Amino acid sequence: MKSILIAICSFLLAVAIIGTNLYTAITNSLKEETIRANIKTELLTGFIYDDNGNKTEIFQTILRLTTLDEATVIKLMENETADQILTDAVNSVYDYNLTGDESVKYTSAKIIKIVEDNMDKILSEINYNITAQERQEILDYTKTHTDYIIETIYSTDIGDYTK
Amino acid sequence: MINFREIFNPSYTYIGPVIIILLILLICLLLRDFSKSSKVIGKIILTSGIITLGFALITELLINNMISYNYKLFIKIISDSLFKNLLLSASVAIILGICLLIFPKLKKTNREQEKNMV
Question: Which of A112, A129, B52, B70 could form a disulfide with A21 if both were Cys (CB 3.0 to 4.6 A apart)?
């Protein structure tokens, strides 16, 4: 009788441990802050490299326009102001994927405004100066590539999500 | 539609550890011997850890490589995080299980050494 009880308890304990491990792991994975942090990493990587591991058009343009090396540009994209912009973008991606609400999506005008308002601030944070012509080139590039930028941001979707 | 956030609510995570502690106490009470209990519980925890490791590998191989291909990054992000969490839980369980299995043997060896010295 005792050995049967021990066997039952052992089995239940094993099930309880495996169940708790799975439950805790899924709970932690579904935490909003975890998903947001991971989207942020993916989004930053998505701005730098495409699915094939090649440099994206945006990243190559930034390199060409600023004539900075890769490490400096990555550092530039991770600084305080850029981080704030990325956090807002992540919130928009997250909200759009969960609600399907088109109004939370970035518009072309908003992207142009973000670049215009923050470009000087981001460059000054790393003590880098650009000429007026280079500044205009960046703005022109942004204006003609807003659709590509929006596509890059919202490619972080949940696949078969339907409204 | 199933609300996964309601099912996997962080406020329910205490239930599992409580059940585990109660079952461990029950096994200890039934065996009434620390060394035997340690061995039995160690084996169970080690087995659970290995099974959890199996689930982690399934997550990585099946979900990450197959489902994420169709469902894109959002699922990939969740499955990556799930894999890391499962790997961590499995590692902890395996290490704890091995420790519980070794502990009675070490105790026995120490006791024998003490006896020999006397």
Answer: B52
Of B30, B51, B78, nearest to A18 by CB-CB distance is: B51
Q: Are A105 and A92 in contact (CB under 8 A)?
A: yes
- Distance between CA B31 and CA B45 in Å, rounded? 17
Residue of higher predicted confidence among B20 and A101: B20
Looking at every residue in chain A, the average pLDDT score rounds to: 79
CA-wise closest residue to A43 among A95, A94, A81? A94
Q: What is the DSSP letter of A53?
A: S
Interface touch B89/A158, C-beta < 8 Å: no
Contact criterion met (CB below 8 Å) for A139 and A115: yes
Which residues in chain B are closer than 8 Å to A13, comparing Cβ atoms?
Answer: 20, 23-24, 27, 41, 44, 48
Phi, then psi, of A53 in degrees rounded to 5: 85, 5
Q: Does residue B46 contact residue B93 with C-beta atoms inside 8 Å? A: yes
Give the phi and the psi of residue B11 in degrees, each rounded to 5: -75, -10
Q: Is the pLDDT of residue B74 over 70?
A: no
Among B17, B27, B75, the residue with its CB nearest the CB of A20 is: B17
pLDDT at position A156 is 52
Could you read off the pLDDT of B32-62 as tens digits, one per residue?
888 888 889 999 999 999 999 998 988 888 7
- Taking the C-alpha atoms of residue B101 and residue B105, their distance in angstroms, rounded to an integer, is 8
For the four alpha carbons of A68, A70, A75 and A78, in that order, the dihedral sign comes to positive
Chain A CB contacts of B41 below 8 Å: 13
A48-104 per-position pLDDT tens digit: 877 777 887 778 877 777 677 788 777 777 777 888 888 888 788 777 777 777 888
